[in-house]
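Researcher: I'm preparing a figure for a lab meeting and need a structural model of a single chain. I don't have an experimental structure, so a prediction will have to do for now. The sequence is pasted below. Please return the structure as tokens so I can convert it later.
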Amino acid sequence: MVNPFKEVNWNPDRAALRTFARSLVIGFPCVAVAFLLAGLLAGKGWNLSFALKLGGGGAAAGALFYVVPAIARPFYIVWYALACCVGIVVGNVLLGLIFYVLVTGIGFLKRLGGRQPIRKTPDRQASTYWVDAPPAPEAKRYYRQF
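Model: Understood. Here is the structure written out token by token.
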């Protein structure tokens, strides 16, 4: 499993803090527009007050952090810590969900089709459950694989 906490720069320099501030200035208005359009598509109309507060507040904080990068460090640390936690939870939930839906779904469809890749039913007349494997090809073939 990938540990996103190892990939974060926990001691950011001035340039990293300014990059963080720039991403706030660009990102928060984009998220505000997305919320505005989502509200419009949901039939709730334009909710300008929330969008302006979100976009304006984020852009103002980003502009302040760009001008004074020293005060951006605590927000940077909290932001990336929360992002790593959310990323771990969402990533694991999606990975598990995709795995179980695909594997269970494919297995269920195979069972409905009557295919059993593994002989699981007991056979009382069989003296053993051993299945002979086909003989291996000669070793010279391994030197010419293609």
